[in-house]
Each structure stands twice: as structure tokens, then as C-alpha cells.
Amino acid sequence: MTDRDVSSGTHVPPAELTATVAILAPRGRDAAVAAQLLQEANLPVVVAETLDHLANLLADQVGAVLVTEEALSSPGTDRLTDVLDIQPPWSDIPFIVLANQGVGRRSDAAVARIDTLRNATLLSRPLHAEELVRAVTSALNARARQHDARRYVEKLELRERQLQDSEAKFHAIADAVDQMIWSTQPDGFHDYYNQRWYDFTGVPEGCTDGDAWNGMFHPDDQERAWGAWRESLKTGQPYEIEYRLKHKSGKYRWVLGRAQPMRDMSGNITRWYGSCTDIHDIKVAQEQRQLMLGEMNHRVKNTLAMVHAMVSQTLRQADTLDDARIAIQSRISMMSAAHDRLVKSTWTETQIAEVVEAALIPHRTGLGRIGVTGPNLPIGSKQALALTMALHELATNATKYGALSTDQGRIDIAWHVSQEDADAGFAFSWRESGGPEVMTPTRRGFGSRMIERALAGYFTGAAELAYNRGGLTFNLTAPLSGLTV
Amino acid sequence: MNSTAKVLPAILVVEDEPLIRMEAVDMIEDAGFRVYDAANADAALVLMELHEDIGILFTDIDMPGSMDGMELATHVRNVWPPVAIVIASGKVDFADMQVPEGSTFFPKPYPTEKIAPILEHIVDRLKISSPPLNKPHD
């Protein structure tokens, strides 16, 4: 049996043996006499035949040993001392040595033999029954106390192991979770942070103990966080707050801080346990969503304002309510179609050829009376919408009064780009021919006003409508930068 | 310029969206005012310098350029204190904005039927102060 086996408690000797006295008295009748005396006193006895046998009993944790002095001088005591040497720390098997009779003065060797037993008492012979029984009883009692001590130590060791296991489990969990975890004394003194805290902040362990944590907060959030924490400490109410915490990168990140008090049986706070959750990405996404909503709101409002302006202008200039109704419906449809195309492209930009084609589709007769030439160019969303509206007005006017109102008329649309002319790099023209003779209108409607006053603004250029007798012409010149501003 | 009861001050309309600017100009012209218009703050300030008859600044808030409408209004209030300021915006949280004191606010789209009476009311108030309306403040 080894030390480790005993202390781990995997090999517990049979209860009887630990309360049994082993007798080794190979010569004479001493063994038989002693056994008889002890059995009469109800003490359990086992007789060992040899030193080797005794060593086995010792290894099996016999309660006590009664041995004659002469038995110790026979060969084979080495194994006995070996077994005694490897006793666990709590164990010290008591020996009662029956002294040799008539020994005046023991040799050094004889003394040394007794000393190797460590816990040995001499008992003189001839045996005296009461002395013997008392000596053995006392030895067995002492031995029982040793076992009591062993059990007590084992219990303490087990508790310590459980505590270590539990602490290891706590650290494994506390360091594995995504959150930073911390804990404080009842007065709010921070004395624990998990590994995540140190991973996040990058500060040396222990340097945020006490009140030093507040220095890790964004200067603008420190006072607010202090206030909330002080309030929780005062009232015992759970702590919850969002603030910016300094990351090891040097940047501040938004975290959600929470803490709950732990109370004892009488309701007194024993500790505070808290966590910090990194909510920076959520927070940033929220802000972006808010920004996006703001931008959407702005665009919708702007579109509605344009519709409002168009309706208001149409109503102001219409001859009858019926005319206004038809014009408003057709203009809103056209604006809506223009938006569809913007959404299908990148919203911010589209191609001018597509814009022109789309605006003309409702007016094409299939007879090839509208000619379009020009390079494809990117054009901004506002310019696309304005150009669509202008072409819609021109084409509607042409169908009612101009080149498309007769069978012979035609329209030629052309645009070109010149890199040399910075102020008028873009030129767009609309020429009607073959239609009825053109009269300068006495009153300007929404279309002509929109073209002359608003369209140029979108392109930061100049627009001009000319009511030539042979056919209406429209010219727009703008800097190239005006196409996408 | 002499301040007689019949002469209305001119109004400077600042709005970056041309169609909406056109509508605002028409609307205010219909109310009987002379109107100047600008697409941004920089152009507006040039007009302010050129035309002493401008008595009311009518500006949008969201505008590209070196200043937005709010900054333009504050600047005009500092340089030409007598000029009345009308701010138009599609924003709903107008209450949170820092507008120059005494400014009038219009939501967008413009409440057409209310514009004329409100502008006339402002003109009545302006008459208490002495002309010329936009003489620079030292």
C-alpha cells in the first residue's frame, strides 16, 4: 500500500483489522498467553507467524502490534522498516515491545532496533495481565484517533478539491462567455474581473480594481455611469446603463453594463455581480438605420414637394379642372416611371439614352418620326427626373399642337459632348419640323415654365424654348459637371 | 429706398430644388411681392449685397454648399438685423433646431393659402423698424 492510496481513500482497510492487535512472539508460549489474555478482555487479536507476515499486516493497517524483543533481532526486519517508512503522514502504528528478561543494559544495536519502530513502548516480562490489556487498549485507542484524524484530513482535502473544481468551473465559464464579468464588495469596491475584461481593455491585471474602472469610460459618460452606480449601491436596485468603454485599440466601444446584488439570508447585500456586453456593432447599425431612415424621409419629402409644386403649378395654369386632372395624372405617372428606372439602376445615377427612350415610349407611333442621336452618358438622379419631365412636356405638347399632331411632322433629338468647352460641354436639342405653323403662345403653361425656369437649374446650365414658325426648338447647354451634380 | 405704405419689401427665396424654387417664387409673386431667387447660400449672399430692397429672407434648411439654410439665416440675422427670416423645412423636429430669434417657420410642402397672409403680417411688423431694410449692421 502506498501513501497516495491511503490519502486518496481508495483502499480503506477492513474495520476489524484496524481495531486488531497483531502478536509476533515466535518463541516460547508468549504469543499464546498474550492472545488468551487479550481475547479474555474482548480485544481482537491476530497472531503473526513471521516478520514478513507482520509486515503484511502493517501494510494492511493493523491497529497495534505486540512483539517480543527477540523477534526483532531475527533476520527480515528490513521489510518491516520499509513498510513503516512509507506510512502516510497521519499514521504511526503503535508497538508494544515485550522486553527481554534480565537485560541490565541494552546494546546500542538493541536500542536502535526498538527505535526503528518509531512509536514503541516497552513492557517487561513476565506478562502482567492488567498492564498488558491496558497497554494494548491504549495503543488501539490511539490508533483509532489516528484514523479519526485521517478521515478528518480526507474530508478537508475533499472539500478543498471541490472548492478548487468549483472555482476552476467558475473561471472556465466566466472566461468563456462573451461578456466581461466583474464583481464588487458590498460598498462597490471592484475586486474581480474576468479574462474578457482584460482582453477587451488590454490593461494589466488588477489595475482597474477599486474605483479605477471609471477611468476606462469615455470622459462624457463617466459622471453619468458614476451616478447610476452610486444610486444602485445606495438603493440596492439593479444597475443598467449604456456607455462607451475604452478598447485596447484606443477606440471607445459602446457596451451595456448591468449588475445585480447578491444578498444573504437576512437581506443584506454580500456582493455585486456585473457584466458588460459589447453592443457597439448593434449601436452603430442602429445609428446607420436611423441615418438611412432620415435620408429616405428626406427623399420622400422632396419627391412629395416636387409633386406638390407640379400640382400647384398645373392648377394655377389650367383652363378647366378636367384639363388639370388629366395633366396631373399624366405627370405623376411620368414621375413615378422615372423613379422606377432610378431604383432599378443605382438610384444615384442612370444613363441618358435610357432616360430619353423611356420618356418617349408613350409618344412613339412606330413610324420612325422621332429621331434620337447622342452618346450614352451617366446622368444624376435629379437631372434624369427633370429631363424626363421636360421631354414629357415637350412630347405632350408636340402631340397636341406640334409636329406629332399631323402625319408629316417629325422630331429630331440630339445631344453631344465637347471636352473643350468647360461651361457648355453638354448640348441637348429638340427640333420639330413638318408640323403646323407655330404660334408663340400667349400664356406659358407648366411645361414651358418648367423647361425655361427649372430644368436649367438642375443642370446648372441654360435652357431655351424657341417658337420658330417651322417648328418648336428647345436647347439646353450645361457644363459636363452639371450632368451628375 | 423710401418706406411708404404701398411699397412691399422684396423677398429672397433660397431653395436648391429648382422645381420647388419655381413654385415658391410663383407663389410669392402671386402674393404681390418682388422676388429674387438663389439655389444656395453663396448666391443668396451675393443677392443680399446687391439688393437693398430685400426685406425678407425665405430659405430652405437642407441645402448643399458652404452653408445650410440655418447658417445662412443666422448669418443674415447678424449682418442685416432688420431683415425678417422665414425658414421652410420638411423636417418634423423643427422644435429642436437652433433658429434665429423672431424667425417664422413654414413646413414643406408650402401651405399655399397661408403664405400670403403670413408674409403680409411680417411686412406689417417690419414697418415699425426703419428703412433701408438690409443696411449692413456694423
Automatic annotation (TrEMBL), chain A:
PROSITE patterns recorded: PAC
UniProtKB keywords: ATP-binding, Chromophore, Flavoprotein, FMN, Kinase, Nucleotide-binding, Phosphoprotein, Photoreceptor protein, Receptor, Repeat, Sensory transduction, Transferase, Virulence
Domain of life: Bacteria
Stretches assigned to coiled coil: none
Gene3D superfamilies: Histidine kinase-like ATPase, C-terminal domain, PAS domain
Reactions catalysed: ATP + protein L-histidine = ADP + protein N-phospho-L-histidine
EC number: 2.7.13.3
PAC domain ranges (all copies): 239-291
Single GO MF descriptor: ATP binding
Database matches in CDD domains: PAS (cd00130)
UniProt cross-references to InterPro entries, sorted A to Z: HATPase_C_sf, PAC, PAS, PAS-assoc_C, PAS-like_dom_sf, PAS_fold_3, Sig_transdc_His_kinase_HWE
UniProt protein name: histidine kinase
Automatic annotation (TrEMBL), chain B:
Alphabetical GO biological process terms: phosphorelay signal transduction system
Pfam families: Response_reg
SUPFAM superfamilies: CheY-like
The entry's keywords: Phosphoprotein
Phosphoprotein in keyword set: yes
InterPro entries per record: Bact_response_regulator, CheY-like_superfamily, Sig_transdc_resp-reg_receiver
Modified residues (4-aspartylphosphate): 60
Protein name per its UniProtKB record: Response regulator receiver domain-containing protein
Organism per entry: Loktanella atrilutea
